[in-house]
Amino acid sequence: xxxxxxxxxxxxxxxxxxxxxxxxxxxxxxxxxxxxxxxxxxxxxxxxxxxxxxxxxxxxxxxxxxxxxxxxxxxxxxxxxxxxxxxxxxxxxxxxxxxxxxxxxxxxxxxxxxxxxxxxxxxxxxxxxxxxxxxxxxxxxxxxxxxxxxxxxxxxxxxxxxxxxxxxxxxxxxxx
Length: 176
Description:
Helix content: 40-55%
Low-confidence stretches: none
Number of strands: 5
Distance between the termini: 49 Å
Strand order of the largest sheet: 1-2-3
Order of helices and strands: EHEHEHHHEHEH
Largest sheet: 3 strands, parallel
């Protein structure tokens, strides 16, 4: 961990600017790609990665983002969903602050449980460790964007990921 000061920076990945003309890059792909670029350049220890995205919602998403280098994650869409559930009366007995606190606590407990099953005791030891195996990703994609990740079963490449992202974007912003 580097002290914040001269020579230390943050990169914030955000998909809040998505609109009908702008499609997001999947959060995990962007995070892993930049993490590995910084590692190759020898500057990773001087850069913090922050992910602000509507994509991550559950423990697995958080564990993957942390494992590929994210130092902080803001799952804003999950927070907005909690707001909607409270407003609609589906989630009762808590205000927004308590609902967010409960959600974040559940995510933290979940991530800690995941890493403890691997024998890791701190998030700091887990961040960027990428103790995963890629399943269903093309080896060239893994080599470039998820460097040093084990992958014994091949699969989709960047073109397919782009097509699937475009399809989701088109459903979110249909031509009318």
